[in-house]
Amino acid sequence: MKALFIGGTGTISSAVTKLALENGNEMTLLNRGSHPKWAAYGVEQITTDINDEESVKRLIGNRKFDVIANFVAYVPEHIERDIRLFSGKTGQYIFISSASAYQKPPANYLISESTPLCNPYWQYSRDKIDCENTLMAAYRSSDFPVTIIRPSHTYGDTNIPVSVHGKNGSWQVIDRILKGKPVIVHGDGLSLWTFTHNSDFAKGFLGLMHNPHAIGEAVHITSDESITWNAAFASIGRALGVTPNLVHIPSDFLAAYNPELLGNLIGDKANSIVFDNSKIKRLVPEFCASVRFDQGVSQTIKYVKNHPELQIQDPEFDAWSDKVIAAYCSGMLQ
Hints:
By secondary structure, the chain is α/β, with parallel strands linked by helices. The chain is built from 13 helices and 15 strands.
């Protein structure tokens, strides 16, 4: 199978690239930078900006691929560009959408692919919905061979999943746990959440690639394990060898202190979400998510602790956390 990945170096796409190579597929990555580690495995690198249509046309030429997957498309204009570029050049175009596009708040705790797409709290999710609509219109009108994949909270070796963090990622939260400082958890910490290790996601993704039954379909790929946020932090604490000092603060309160959290919390993490994975298992019968969260996050923490370049400090978020915790606790005492 010949596949072109646009992006190919993120948490999700790097795991898929790795598994695709292990399974003997011919891989080409199109992105703005050179990544020597992939070249050693025989990956072809096309270095250009996907937004430069003329450059992409010139570099792709008359080549055709069994699968083209775009991991960095976020708005309908990106999709319209890809339809122009890749119509007639691929047997399958895979768009990476988001499970955050599902109805918020959900009418039913169990999410399937037939759950309505509606998120009034997060522009990111609404843009993904618009992308999906654009693609399905192209599928219906001109047989553009689309498959839509909706990841949920997917993590790997380099990113420790937490509920609330700053612009520099989650290390500052881990640093607070290690120092015994209070750590914010949204709500009461009892809402259910689904964490999916990227190696498990890759198994489902690979099974959908070049799969004729996946054309014209939207599918989410997640673990079957759903745990509370309190349980997630307990697993993180065990991996670190300390007991986290958790402070539970309502999501509305947190969003009031930082409006950027409105989408990420009210439009996503604050809701209990459990996924019905029967569709991916029907399309890919061998799919099974096998990495438990406690196992996966322990592996991630070990990796991050051994790579100081991933331990990025975030003094702004640290100060914000102290401020919000003090304000909330002060209000509770009045």
